[in-house]
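Below is our example:
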Amino acid sequence: MTQKADVEEFISQKRLAVAGVSRKSNKFGNAVFKELKKKGYQVWPVNPNMETFQGEPCYPDLKSVPGPIDGVVVVLPPKRTEVLVKEAKEAGINRVWMQLGAQSDAAVDFCKQNGMLVVANECILMFAEPVASFHKFHRWIWKVFGKLPN
């Protein structure tokens, strides 16, 4: 289970890669990228099949992103997440947020076995302040039902 301290540590980082941006505008990776950027994070899009994303360079992998990266938000299918966490470790990235639906037991286990901070099965937009609209309501509902990390 995700710990509140892990969530707080992750969202306090301001230099994040977002793995899972897409050409399809309705994909959640795109929303994560846009919202984090709007909230003041320095974000880099990662997708090996795109050269640019919203007018910015899009990187094929984590090792290609310039400068140090504090963490990576993963919005990929679980099998691709399992590959990406290994890439993150090789790139020296020790904080991984697996967006709802991106996590797998194997990916979470890899992170834990390699001393990486991992947040799994949570929506970063419910925690990265300021939280607005649907995500604020969603966080409130999870609080009411005791589903927020402790």
Remarks:
- The longest helix spans residues 78-90.
- The CA atoms of residues 34 and 43 lie 9 Å apart.
- The chain is about 35% helix and 20% strand.
